[in-house]
Amino acid sequence: MADTMVETTLQVEGMTCTGCERRIGTALRRVDGVREVIADHVNGEVAVRFDPRATGPDAVRERITLAGYTVRDDGPVDTGDLR
């Protein structure tokens, strides 16, 4: 049985530097099931790859908010299954 990972890219406001990217990356990697995080302060995007059996988009959004940033309400840029 192949593992199924989900990737979602969110629009995030408040990132101004690479330090912000690191802060979000560190916060999200502490969420069980998160496998990869790529934050881009220039484009205001955070791509997260996670195991949907362990976590979901709501937990990702909550952790970004707790780190002090705002996830835009217009939803993810892209969500898809990765195999």
* Residue share in β-strands: 35-45%
What is the CA–CA distance across the termini? 11 Å
Q: Please state how the strands of the largest beta sheet are arranged side by side.
A: 2-3-1-4
Secondary-structure element string: EHEEHE
The CATH architecture name of the domain at 1-55 reads 2-Layer Sandwich
| Uncertain stretches of 5 or more adjacent residues | none
Q: Can you give the mean pLDDT? A: 89
Count of separate DSSP helical elements: 2
Number of strands: 4
Using the coordinates shown, work out and report the CATH topology of the domain at 1-55.
Alpha-Beta Plaits
Quick description:
The protein is α+β, with helices and mostly antiparallel strands and 83 residues long.
Question: What can you tell me about this protein's structure?
Answer:
By secondary structure, the protein is of the alpha+beta class. The chain has a domain at 1-55: Alpha-Beta Plaits, CATH 3.30.70.100. It is 27% helix and 42% strand. It has two helices and four strands. It has a four-stranded antiparallel sheet. Strand 2 (34-40) and strand 3 form a beta hairpin.
